[in-house]
Amino acid sequence: MSGNVISLDGLSVSSKDTLTKAMEADGCSSSACGSSDAPEDMDPATWEKVKDHPCYSEEAHHYFARMHVAVAPACNIQCNYCNRKYDCANESRPGVVSERLTPENAARKVIAVANEIPQLSVLGIAGPGDSAYDWRKTRETFRLVHQQLPDIKLCLSTNGLALPEHVDDLMDMNIDHVTLTINMIDPEVGTKIYPWIFYEHKRRTGLEASRILHERQMQSLDMLHERGILVKVNSVMIPGINDEHLLEVNKEVKKRGAFLHNIMPLISAPEHGTVFGLEGQRGPTAAELKKLQDACAGGANLMKHCRQCRADAVGLLGEDRGQEFTMDLVPDEVTYDPAKRETYKEWVAKEREDRRAAAAVAKAETDAAVAEEAAPMLIAVATKGGGRINQHFGHATEFQIFEVDAKGVNFVTHRRCDNYCVGGYGEEDKLELVIKTLEGIDTILCAKIGDCPREDLAAAGIEAIQDYAYEYIETAVSAVYRARRGLPAVEAETA
Amino acid sequence: MALQIIQSNCTVCGACEFECPNAAILFESDTYIIAPELCTECKGHYDRPQCAEVCPVPETCVPA
């Protein structure tokens, strides 16, 4: 098994030395997506639905993996950020896929992955194409997978235009997660995003297209919400087109019962061959995205751990092992072996309890050692999952950013330093990219870092700390915060 | 009277097969083709040929 996912052997965290040695011998990657809410923030029925879903629960994203299968390539709308001719194995972004599958092949692949990656908890159908429009293939894939792996959560992502007809099927298949991509609630805005839709046997353009799409999207959201299916709304933030408008979208989808709102930056470049790419439409900067997310506070809960993964991604969020499971590598006959996944689930249940307890202790210690009004701090963490600082700096393709203050530690976002394309960067370029990616952050926690990069980072004003290798993120981040912002020791003890 | 699919443009998404009222679109050798003897250009069914209406790539489902 590749080191990208925590191997079962490595689950029991023994001494730091053993783990550090293991890491030197092993390769690795990263983790992390959904609501940052913990169980105490939601009703038990909802928590039961989201607790193992990496996209719906920020906590779950440290432990559980998803996979997407591209079985539904037909689409009923055209978006200006999509070009159906595009495919690149090095690209990591939605709608990009290197291999299309029949439902039978997809089911075989899911079993092969479940046998190898015990963290697998979710199967999603997310394009290219629209899972609800190409419904026969989506339904057949779900049926075949459910027969053999009844405990895998099934979910789909759709533009909503064709969804209302299939909501009863969703109920029959016990699907409790649906993602709707809603980029506008004002059809005038929609005309700049959607050149046409195909609806009731006719291609429709202009305002008519966006009006119909909008009405069907709202109908879909209402129908799903009425039936208790959790809805995540995905919105693509397109500067100058719907950026300010997404505030209104956020309010509206909250009003209509969306569980989570995921505002994603437009990814746009001329070489993608999309209308936006060719017109030079830019994506938002990290600061613009953060500003919009902050402005949405009080509206629908925002998902901040989305990795905008490929439509054939496999693994924990933030990593993609899809290339290890292309169909030519999947055996003709695969038999599901539940043992590994069961062992993993038991381990996760205990590990999550331990982590929560450790986070509570760290919070209490910080509360006692730091003045209430002490300024918050942002800290970058290199992790490959499991909620621990367990990744080598040199293997990190992204960093998870945590904000800490006297009230506790909160996940803020991830910052990718692979620039959406996993190939084509030399080591030196990479370090420069990391430094740029970490703008505004002066501390990185990682399991290990070489002397050279550490010195280069220090020269750029960033301190890389490896003293907290394999500790829980909350524990380590709190300790660093106390060291930087803590009151003098005497006061702290009496506080 | 039939349409054809320009193979170099086709993304093999299958939307046309899905929409064809005559089941005239077949998947053969990893690509879609229109059986001319079955294609009616949707006359009698719809105002415009459904394959051309739904196809995501311009100038791909065109008169043969």
TrEMBL record, chain A:
Keywords: 4Fe-4S, Iron, Iron-sulfur, Lyase, Metal-binding, Nitrogen fixation, S-adenosyl-L-methionine. The keyword Amino-acid biosynthesis does not apply. One of its GO terms (molecular function) is lyase activity. InterPro entries: Aldolase_TIM, Di-Nase_FeMo-co_biosynth, DiNase_FeMo-co_biosyn_sf, MoaA_NifB_PqqE_Fe-S-bd_CS, Nase_CF_NifB, NifB_C, rSAM, rSAM_sf. Pathway: Cofactor biosynthesis; Fe-Mo cofactor biosynthesis. It holds the Pfam family Radical_SAM. Residues 61-312 form the Radical SAM core domain. Its cofactor is [4Fe-4S] cluster. Gene3D superfamilies: Aldolase class I (3.20.20.70), Dinitrogenase iron-molybdenum cofactor biosynthesis domain (3.30.420.130). It comes from the Bacteria. Belongs to the radical SAM superfamily. NifB family. Involved in the biosynthesis of the iron-molybdenum cofactor (FeMo-co or M-cluster) found in the dinitrogenase enzyme of the nitrogenase complex in nitrogen-fixing microorganisms. NifB catalyzes the crucial step of radical SAM-dependent carbide insertion that occurs concomitant with the insertion of a 9th sulfur and the rearrangement/coupling of two [4Fe-4S] clusters into a [8Fe-9S-C] cluster, the precursor to the M-cluster. This is FeMo cofactor biosynthesis protein NifB. It comes from Alloyangia pacifica.
Automatic annotation (TrEMBL), chain B:
Residues 1-30 form the 4Fe-4S ferredoxin-type domain. Pfam families: Fer4. Gene3D superfamilies: 3.30.70.20. Its cofactor is [4Fe-4S] cluster. Keywords: 4Fe-4S, Electron transport, Iron, Iron-sulfur, Metal-binding, Transport. The keyword 4Fe-4S applies. One of its GO terms (molecular function) is 4 iron, 4 sulfur cluster binding. The keyword Mitochondrion does not apply. It comes from the Bacteria. This is 4Fe-4S dicluster domain-containing protein.
